[in-house]
């Protein structure tokens, strides 16, 4: 995957405007006609190198930041995608946060509070493994969770999800206006593939820790989750903060698409190493002469 061409892997799955988006138009098993896994892996390796190089410039320039948000059903491959795609990046330039069920303290605040504290600094790539989008996904599928949020009853109306989409759109626009680019990934796995992966976890003692009975129970709500995802993408995909709906039944393909989308986002920033002015160059010349003049 070369820079400049990476986007072609990701573009078919990019949603800039959710108005007409339908989840059923994207097949979780899609591999864009690529059947040569080996070539795809090589492309991914090249992509990882390209990413590392651009991340260094992002860090050196120290102006922009990139926020990557990952959402998915369990076992869709979020963790693996993050691990592989970011494997070449300098850990100092990258911050990963996982958001689980909120604590009592977090529930006492507005729902953007905990994620706002974890936004990436300039020069960094921030990764959210789950995010404030849970507030229109799991909370929508299980509305009893809203009660624990202590909201004034007059604000909990049938319009709450639409209002949350609106607020999230504004928040992401605000981030973009501050130099923080936002890219969102929904790893779209099929119900059948999820079942297969759960069964693998149950058959492999090294993977037991990844399995929880509640994950399997959530499968009962599959349809509700899919319609919540579809509605969320419709309500929050914008040109400045697009969603990528990434086919996730084949992990190798998921990773290629995610890497391509990140490369694309960094390329759009046109990152350059900071220019060194004349005074600095003179200073550096003098430092070099001094170093060369020393005995050891
Ligand atoms: P993952 O499932 O992401 O790999 P995990 O299994 O290590 O991570 P879990 O303990 O399953 O972690 O935590 C994730 C759970 O937290 C998910 O079920 C998710 O729906 C829930 N969660 C995250 N954010 C919220 C929120 N704002 N409100 C309610 N539940 C949330
Ligand atoms: Mg889990």
Structure description:
- With 296 residues, this protein is α/β, with parallel strands linked by helices.
- Helices cover 47% and strands 11% of the residues.
- It is built from 13 helices and six strands.
- The chain has helices at residues 7-10, 37-61, 78-85, 104-107, 113-116, 138-141, 144-147, 160-177, 191-203, 213-218, 222-236, 251-268, 278-293; strands at residues 14-15, 65-72, 94-98, 125-129, 180-188, 243-247.
- It has a six-stranded mixed β-sheet, sandwiched between helices.
- Helix 3 packs across helix 12.
- The mean pLDDT is 94.
- Bound molecules: adenosine-5'-triphosphate (ATP) and magnesium ion.
- Adenosine-5'-triphosphate binds at residues 74, 79, 99-102, 129-130, 134-135, 138-139, 145.
Low-confidence stretches: none
- Measured between the Cα atoms of the first and last residue, the distance is 45 Å
**Fraction of residues in helix:** 40-55%
Strand content: 5-15%
| Mean model confidence by pLDDT | 94
- Give a short account of the largest sheet: 6 strands, mixed
The count of DSSP E runs of length 2 or more, i.e. the number of strands, is 6
The largest sheet has its strands arranged as 1-6-5-2-4-3
